[in-house]
Amino acid sequence: ACAARASEITFELPDNAKQCFYEEIAQGTKCTLEFQVITGGHYDVDCRLEDPDGIVLYKEMKKQYDSFTFTASRNGTYKFCFSNEFSTFTHKTVYFDFQVGEDPPLFPSENRVTALTQMESACVSIHEALKSVIDYQTHFRLREAQGRSRAEDLNTRVAYWSIGEAIILLVVSIGQVFLLKSFFSDKRTTTTRVGS
């Protein structure tokens, strides 16, 4: 059995762009691709996974997040691409986790006929619990990054709106001062006598 490999990457995907990644995978290896769009636009991206022959194993359009598990049907280089070609002016930040293979057993002689000792069983259960904690931490880290991005975007919009309101208030105030001044300005009228 081969050791498990995992790639976790967060990258910027510009507008009208496509980014591809390649992984050499042996036949019969179980793999999982999980991705999530953290920032940008409607938080959606196109994703496509192909085997070495170019056969499409997975294709989704405009997804915010998804997970796909497959078993490699043959040896070779598998390709998965993220596309933002449908977006004209918003770039995205995309996170993906690509896991190849199964985790090696905690105890190499775990397949033995004898039962595990109580200490070994406790170690295995703690190891499994720690793996789930790592998954939860990754999930909450992504949620926090997404929330922070939305909050910063909202803060920027509120700042621009406040500046706009201040400018409008200033223009209206100056306009009212000139209008009131025109009401009370002393206009001299000249009268002429028409004599007979």
UniProtKB/TrEMBL annotation:
Source taxon at top rank: Eukaryota
Q: What is its main location?
A: membrane
List keywords of the entry alphabetically. Answer: Cytoplasmic vesicle, Endoplasmic reticulum, Glycoprotein, Golgi apparatus, Membrane, Protein transport, Signal, Transmembrane, Transmembrane helix, Transport
| SMART domains on file | EMP24_GP25L
One Gene Ontology cellular component term attached to this UniProt record is: ER to Golgi transport vesicle membrane
Function field: Potential role in vesicular protein trafficking, mainly in the early secretory pathway. Appears to play a role in the biosynthesis of secreted cargo including processing and post-translational modifications.
What is this protein called in UniProt?
Transmembrane emp24 domain-containing protein 7
